[in-house]
Design brief:
Blueprint: H1 2-8, H2 22-25, H3 41-57, H4 60-64, H5 67-76, H6 92-99, H7 101-114, H8 119-122, H9 126-131, H10 138-153, H11 157-162, H12 164-178, E1 186-188, H13 198-201, H14 209-212, E2 214-215, H15 225-229, E3 236-238, H16 239-249
Antiparallel strand pairs: 1-2, 1-3
Helix pairs in contact: 3-12, 5-10, 7-12
């Protein structure tokens, strides 16, 4: 959030230098023989590092570091519904259909970079729209409408369905699954579960936690709302908490 404020005030030179998705927008561009120079190397390295470490730690970046995730949380908290600790969930079919959009956007971005027409995606880029409001376009206004207006009614709509960087992190998590890499996950204790379904009702990513038990869903942002909502002690735990408890018992 501080970075965005500084960008808007013109204190920092470029939004791209602080965007983790530069790992795609500019990292792939450097592979093009006609454009050999790597722009914004630090943001490309950090962006790739976050994506790769999601294999072990999931999408914690979305839950704790992404400014747009934070903005969406703040906006949704203005909605009286949020006080009841209930999320507005879309019909299951629509939710599954929309879930694929972020992967399509990611693939379009990658293709655009290879074709050196990445400026098409940049017209929709929320980072540019917020950091350079003097150059705002109708396309970026549409993106900000989704983040700020739709986000009031549906928590983290951008994170759930449209963010290409979220799609990139998910791809790395799928790679980790294929390689059988053990990752840090949330577990529902089947022996203690009373099937109140509060964990699923409060999940901002619309994950059906009470059915999955061990949350392998790559869209989990580790907000821990499910742990906080569970009425049973240790009804839902994190791997790290589980291990800590086990050591104490030993």
């Amino acid at each position: 959030m501080i970075i965005i404020v500084l960008l808007i005030n013109g204190k920092l030179c470029s939004a791209h230098g602080f965007c983790p998705y530069s790992s795609v927008c500019f990292g792939i561009m450097s592979l093009n023989p006609g454009f050999a120079k790597l722009l914004y190397p630090i943001s490309v390295i950090i962006g790739l590092l976050i994506a790769v470490t999601s294999i072990l730690w999931g999408r914690r970046f979305c839950g704790y570091a992404c400014p747009f995730g934070t903005v969406q949380e703040i906006i949704y908290n203005l909605n009286p519904r949020s006080k009841k600790n209930r999320q507005l969930h879309l019909p299951v079919r629509l939710h599954k259909l929309l879930n694929g959009l972020k992967y399509i956007i990611m693939l379009i971005t990658i293709l655009a970079v290879f074709l050196s027409v990445q400026y098409i995606y940049m017209k929709f880029c929320p980072v540019l729209a917020v950091s350079h409001p003097q150059n705002i376009t109708i396309y970026s206004i549409a993106t900000l409408f989704v983040i700020f207006i739709v986000g009031y009614f549906i928590n983290r709509f951008w994170c759930r369905y449209l963010c290409p960087y979220a799609a990139l992190m998910n791809v790395f998590q799928y790679i980790g699954k294929l390689l059988h890499v053990k990752s840090n996950r949330i577990h529902a204790n089947e022996d203690l579960c009373v099937d109140c379904r509060l964990c699923s009702k409060c999940c901002p990513m619309q994950i059906v936690i009470h059915e999955e038990k061990q949350i392998e869903n790559v869209n989990c942002i580790f907000c821990l709302k499910c742990l906080q909502s569970c009425p049973i002690d240790n009804g839902i735990v994190l791997d790290t908490i589980k291990l800590k408890n086990k050591k104490t018992l030993d």
